[in-house]
Amino acid sequence: MHFSHIFKSKKNLQSTFLALFLAFFSLNVSAHPKPDAPASAENHGTVASEGTKTEEFDITAFILHHIADSHGFHLWGEGDNSVAVSLPVILWIDNGLVTFMSSAFHHDDEGKHVVEKNGQRFVNYHEKIYIASVTPNEHGEYMSLDADHKASNVLPLDFSITKNVFTLIFSAIILIIVFVGVANSYAKRKGKSPKGFQSLIEPVILFIRDDIAIPNLGAKYEGYMPYLLTVFFFIWFNNILGMVPFFPGGANLTGNINLTLVLSVITFLITNVKANGHYWKHIFWMPGVPVPMKIFLAPLELMGVFTKPIALMIRLFANITAGHILVLALLCLIFVFKSIFIAPVSIVFVVFISMIELLVGFIQAFIFTVLTALFIGLAVQEHGEH
After folding, report:
1. Do 120 and 150 meet the contact criterion of CB atoms below 8 Å apart?
2. Helix (H), strand (E) at residue 301
3. Cβ-count burial of 209 within 10 angstroms (0-12 exposed, 13-18 middle, 19+ buried)?
4. How would you class 74 by CB atoms within 10 Å of its CB: exposed for 0-12, middle for 13-18, buried for 19 or more?
């Protein structure tokens, strides 16, 4: 099978993408100093007893911090010893475009450190960039908070390169380089037996073609193979990268509902734009069904047009996020019990669940691709093909 028709790129495509990547994302590795501020029981979750304060471990904050998106890759350390890779902050306000590096904010002082650019004052509060208040509130944060502790400051349009955006672009470039290389290898070898990485990737491509595309799309499978291959390998690769949030600086891309929403919307558009008359007839006026039942079932079938992509979106997001939370919760047992004896048990369970997560990463990519092929196949096949 030849794959060179999938990527019609020139010889220097890989180097061009890599050059643009390095030029646009010149990362700044820096330490974020923590300004002197008195510790507060409210801010740090501490309990005072006879003039002493004992810090408590906040398991919820720890887990949410590791699975959430942010404006930089926090590697290790806190306060003066905090080391992170900063990313570009790109904001649009009435005065125009404002850009600076996320290292301008202090990592540990959300809402307390103001950055002044282009005559505006900005503050980072829970990884959202707001226009800073003129004066700080009682917690020392330049934020206006209502009774429900929700921010009422102005939110500028944020086009920043967060760690999820960076990971998305990084994974896309890697996949382009890999598959352009595989396609060029096929073109040069002209049907000879594959070698190297080509021999590793070919069985997966054939699996998608023979076990996913052809059974669900029939004779029309070739036109949808590029999309199915893209969806499968993009999700699978980023599911593997998603294991990195268990370690410093990782990103949780496929566990972000915004990404799964976009993927499901693309599937929704392809399915309904390419759908033929038989598909819409079976939705609005099912053949062979009594008229009263047609009237009853038509709204349900129409609702199903929208619930299918919603199911795709939630399934991928929920499964990946749940797996990450489980692993991180097991890691937190060490800090919750504050005992060295619990560490071996926690680590064993983390390794075991991580191995399952590797399998789940493949299964979720497979399920998303199968359901995508199934939905498209139901929409494009002629009535006699069902």
Report:
1. no
2. helix 291-337
3. middle
4. buried
Confidence of residue 41 (pLDDT cuts 50, 70, 90): very low
The phi and psi torsions of 145 (rounded to 5 degrees) equal -115, 140
pTM for this one? 0.78
* For residues 224-251, average pLDDT: 82
According to the model, what pLDDT value does residue 79 have? Answer: 62
HEC letters along 226-247:
HHHHHHHHHHHHHHHHCCHHHC
**What average pLDDT does the structure give for the chain?**
79
Provide DSSP, 280-292. Answer: HHHHHS-TTS-HH
Q: 175 and 6 in contact (C-beta within 8 Å)?
A: no
**304-309, Cβ contacts within 8 angstroms, sequence gap of 24 or more:** 305/268, 305/272, 306/268, 308/268, 308/271, 308/371, 308/375, 309/264, 309/265, 309/267, 309/268
C-beta separation of 254 from 244 below 8 A: no
- The CA dihedral of 193, 198, 200, 203, to the nearest 10 degrees, is -70
- Residue 27 amino acid letter: L
Number of Cβ within 10 Å of residue 160's Cβ equals 20
How far is Cα 21 from Cα 342, in angstroms, rounded to an integer?
44
Task: Please name the residues in contact with 328: beta carbons below 8 A apart, sequence gap of 6 or more.
Answer: 62, 63, 66, 67, 245, 246
Cβ 259 vs Cβ 164: under 8 Å: yes
Closest CA relative to residue 252, chosen from 176, 315, 165, 358: 165
Give the pLDDT band of residue 285 (cuts 50, 70, 90): confident
Who wins on pLDDT, 9 or 68?
68
User: In 10 A of CB 26, how many CB atoms?
Assistant: 8
Token representation of residue 216: 């669900």
| Least trusted range by pLDDT, from 68-72, 74-78, 312-316 | 74-78
Q: DSSP label at 197?
A: H
pLDDT at 334 over 70: yes
* 12 has pLDDT over 80: no
> Is 49 exposed, middle or buried (CB count within 10 Å of its CB: 0-12, 13-18, 19+)?
exposed
